[in-house]
Design goal:
heterodimer, A: 417 residues, mainly alpha, two-stranded antiparallel sheet, 64% helix, globular, B: 252 residues, two-stranded antiparallel ribbon, 8 helices, 40% helix
Chain lengths: 417, 252
């Protein structure tokens, strides 16, 4: 079905035997029709893909210099920072790349929440996205352990200890995770192995995510299905050009942090070598885990706290069946739109509370914010029955072009060929 | 170990109870460092004075194990000066052909020898508190060089009613206000090679700056590369925006 054509004899020869050019053309080229009205919030999927590539490239190069052993890990990271050519650059890119990966993925997720991208028929696309988020969290957590600083060690201790909350077998699971009776060299070794492995698992999940995306194509800000040529434009050159501009903006911000504030997202304590005999005054995870950390600490019971923390992400798996409104975009759901913004604010409050000690007013706010986090999903369940959505436009073309307009020139060119 | 981890867990999960807020030190005064800001760079004379303070004062108790003598070239010393400086230290090498460890004069490729053979020895010689290695200090404390500088100048008489523990000193910037390190800097504690007046404040500033260099030796390369990269990306992004506008012009 691909309209891929070429005058190049070599490409034609290869294409006949291995149709990889038409495959690429259908995936991200002129053969992939895309809604014409995607706004800049649709840039963050490709940015997440870019972040993943940056992380894997710098990570592989760092792995060539890093030593996964409790005695040498911290020193080997310092050697990368001091003696490896451009090692400081590689490490600062990798260190901050993790933060930027989470920034773009969180924006990508909230885009999906606002525009109802998770709704039928894109439920599996959404679920695969949540799987990617979970894999990213596991990868990031284990990566943070590798420099074997104080926060690495104590973060690993606190988080692995969460599994001891499981009744009966909890303690055994923790011992099994550690490979011993404390976070020690076997723990560091396996975390390193998994930190190297999981990104490739993420790539696999991303392939499935994109595969599912291509089944029905991108959703769009109006949330109505695109039909007919006046609603769609080829991915290339329109969205390749738009994504490229987004990449430029992303790289400017990323470079600004890497070169001028590389330790902004980090904890000073992680420049102190791990010491099992000295606990830091405050054990705080990386910023992207703070909302979950706040939920964990808001609940007085250890087991329930752990359940709530994991539940806060697992609930996203069933979101397509919680929100039953047939209207996708918050643009046409005046009440949902307000609750979306309240939910976003709630998540930011949770992130702030996660960085504070669990006492006094922080504790109270943390508990209220945690309760609201889960209440939100109940609210939107009810809302999907009681809310009266505003009328939807009959087509993207009608809404965007105000009832007219020529099909895009690139498409016309293609037809002429 | 198990109790420790359990205690740590309890500390972070327990609600309200348990975790008393560790008393933070006083707010740090901000100093205008030559290396702060996008175009910031080190002041070579300041670094050399800071090295002198480290060698004559701090190094009695604190190591600098990630810094090699050869690295001092970045401070503006010549190869011969560095050779000369490294031979003033004796380092343990070996084993030799008889299987014995031996001492020899340092070489530029050697790292600053630590004053104590290990943390236990350091603690035993210092009333139980091992003086930390200073290589990464500027990145290992909130506030960085501002903290180092303030801490060195933060020794004061304790307020009325404040009982410092035996062997500890009152310092307004140290978390908990009681620090094992005795006040290290006094006016004229060193005689600067470049003739600068060695006030305590001058020495604290110089050594804090020097420790920023030991923690972040590539800061200048980072800044100058960063300026070029960001400028390039801004222009490039502008072109990408223009290209995007051009591509989309037939749609709007």
């Amino acid at each position: 079905m691909s309209g891929f054509k070429t005058n190049n004899a070599v490409i034609r020869w290869i294409e006949y035997r291995l149709p990889i050019f038409s495959f690429l053309d259908d995936a991200v080229g002129s053969g992939y029709p895309t809604p014409r009205n995607l706004n800049y919030w649709w840039n963050f999927g490709s940015l997440a893909g870019l972040a993943l590539v940056i992380m894997m490239l710098t990570g592989i190069m760092l792995a060539m210099q890093y030593t996964p052993h409790v005695i040498f890990a911290f020193d080997s990271v310092e050697r990368i920072m001091r003696d490896v050519n451009s090692g400081w650059l590689l490490r600062y890119i990798h260190m901050n790349g993790g933060s930027f990966f989470f920034i773009v993925v969180y924006i990508h997720i909230f885009r999906g929440l606002y525009y109802g991208s998770y709704k039928a028929p894109r439920e599996l696309l959404w679920i695969l996205g949540v799987v990617i988020l979970l894999l990213m969290m596991a990868t990031a957590f284990m990566g943070y352990v590798l420099p074997w600083g104080q926060m690495s060690f104590w973060g690993a201790t606190v988080i692995t200890n969460l599994f001891s909350a499981i009744p009966l077998i909890g303690e055994s699971i923790v011992t099994w995770l550690w490979g011993g009776f404390a976070v020690d060299n076997p723990t560091l070794n396996r975390f390193y192995a998994l930190h190297y492995l999981l990104p490739f698992v993420i790539v696999g999940a991303v392939v499935l995510h994109i595969w599912a995306l291509h089944r029905f194509g991108s959703s769009n800000p109006l949330g109505i299905e695109a039909n007919g040529p006046q609603d769609k434009i080829p991915f290339h050159p329109y969205y390749t050009a738009k994504d490229a501009f987004g990449v430029g903006v992303f790289l400017v911000l990323f470079a600004a942090i890497v070169f001028f504030a590389p330790n902004l997202f980090g904890e000073p304590d992680n420049y102190i070598p791990a010491n099992p005999l000295s606990t830091p005054a405050h054990i705080v995870p990386e910023w992207y885990f703070l909302p979950y950390y706040a939920i964990l600490r808001a609940i007085p019971d250890k087991l329930l706290g752990v359940v709530a923390m994991f539940g806060s992400i697992l609930i996203l798996f069933v979101l397509p069946w919680i929100d039953r409104s047939p209207v996708r975009s918050a643009k046409f759901r005046p009440i949902y739109k307000q609750f979306f913004w309240i939910f976003l604010a709630d998540c930011i409050v949770l992130g702030y509370i996660g960085a504070k000690p669990p006492e006094g007013v922080f504790l109270i706010v943390g508990r209220l914010a945690t309760a609201y986090y889960f209440l939100h999903f109940f609210i939107i369940f009810v809302l999907s029955y009681v809310e009266r959505p505003r009328p939807l436009p009959s087509s993207i073309g009608e809404a965007v072009l105000k009832g007219g307009g020529a099909p895009p020139a690139a498409m016309a060119r293609e037809k002429a060929q | 170990m198990k109790t420790l981890t359990a205690a740590a867990l309890a500390a972070v999960i327990a609600l309200g109870a348990g975790q008393a807020a560790a008393a933070e030190g006083a707010a740090l005064p901000k100093y205008d460092w030559s290396f702060s800001g996008v175009f910031g760079h080190f002041d070579r004379a300041e670094l050399q004075r800071g090295l002198q303070v480290y060698r004559e004062v701090c190094s009695a108790c604190h190591g600098l194990k990630y810094v090699a003598f050869r690295n001092l070239e970045a401070l503006g010393y010549s190869e011969d000066e560095i050779k000369q400086m490294s031979t003033e230290y004796s380092v343990v090498d070996g084993p030799n052909d008889e299987g014995e460890m031996f001492e020899r004069p340092g070489r530029p490729s050697d790292y600053f020898p630590s004053p104590f053979p290990n943390d236990k020895a350091a603690a035993a010689a210092n009333n139980g508190a091992a003086p930390p290695d200073l290589s990464l200090m500027a990145k290992a404390r909130p506030g960085g060089p501002d903290y180092t500088r303030s801490l060195l100048l933060g020794y004061e008489d304790p307020p009325a009613g404040f009982e410092a523990l035996e062997g500890l000193n009152y310092n307004i910037y140290f978390p908990g206000n009681q620090i094992a390190m005795a006040p290290p800097l006094f006016d004229e504690a060193v005689e600067y090679a470049d003739g600068t007046e060695a006030t305590a404040e001058q020495m604290a500033t110089d050594v804090a700056s020097f420790l920023m260099w030991t923690a972040e030796p590539y800061l200048e390369e980072r800044h100058s590369m960063g300026v070029k990269v960001v400028l390039f990306l801004l222009v490039f992004t502008g072109l990408l925006y223009a290209a995007k506008r051009k591509v989309w012009s037939d749609l709007h």
